[in-house]
Amino acid sequence: MVKKKKTKKTTKTNKVKKKSALAKTPVVASNYKPNVFKSNEAKVKIKKVLKQPVEKKDYNLKDYVVYPKHGVGKIIAVEKAKIGGIDITFYKVFIEKEKLTLSIPLNQQSHLRPISSINQINKAINILKIKPKIKRTMWSRRAQEYEQKINSGKLYQLAEVVKDLNKKTDIMAEQSYSERQLFEKAYERLKSEFEIILGDKAKIKMDKALKRIENPAQVEMQQ
Question: How much is the pLDDT for 151?
Fold first, then answer.
């Protein structure tokens, strides 16, 4: 009888030890989880950029530049402004032909290009002298191609449009309305860049190359 009593006591003590062990383990786990969550929260935080990335200025005040979709413009100011909490430096470009002022951020100055050199102007004049290409495609497709060339901002492509749409006359009946519009747009944009380098002689040289005047020799003698 004595032996049986001893075995019952040992089983009771084992059960008590197991319960106490189970009670302790969740406490350790609960203390660990919040620490993991906090460390993950710290990683998710995003730092705001308060300044525009530093970039060297390619142009200065009063420089003439070409903006592809609008043509020749003049830098009238270099200003700073805070937009969305970020300090931004930008050029103020005045397009005289359209009476329009553009704000070009410094980090987008790659959209601008400098005025062409005298050698590039002379090459463009030689393009104007070439016989126009006659295309058999539909006018809507050709008009789209011409529009893309005009808005490319590239001097030689602009000269090609003027050359191809030139009718050597100002008589309205010689061109459709849409042809006339595209020609005038390309002609004026090309002339505005020529004028920066050639001054008042720009139109004379263009019209002579396009054979839009009856006697080019007489005009040169008057100069």
Answer: 94
Q: Which residue in 124, 144, 151 sits closest to 70, CA to CA?
A: 151
pTM of the model: 0.68
Q: What is the mean pLDDT of residues 1-18?
A: 50
Structure confidence by residue, pLDDT tens digits, 154-182? 999 999 999 999 986 555 456 788 899 99
Report d(CA 92, CA 153) in Å as an integer: 19
Tokens encoding 72? 């020749």
**CATH 2.40.10.170 intervals, the chain:** 64-114
Task: Tell me the backbone φ, ψ of residue 36, rounded to 5 degrees.
Answer: -65, -45
Contact assessment for residue 88 and residue 49, using Cβ atoms and an 8 Å cutoff = no
Bridge-partner residues for 91, per DSSP?
78, 104
- Whether domain 118-222 has CATH 3.90.580.10: no
Span 64-114: which CATH code? 2.40.10.170
Across 76-103, average pLDDT: 90
> In sequence order, which ranges of the chain are alpha helices (DSSP H)?
2-44, 118-129, 139-150, 155-165, 177-198, 201-210, 216-222
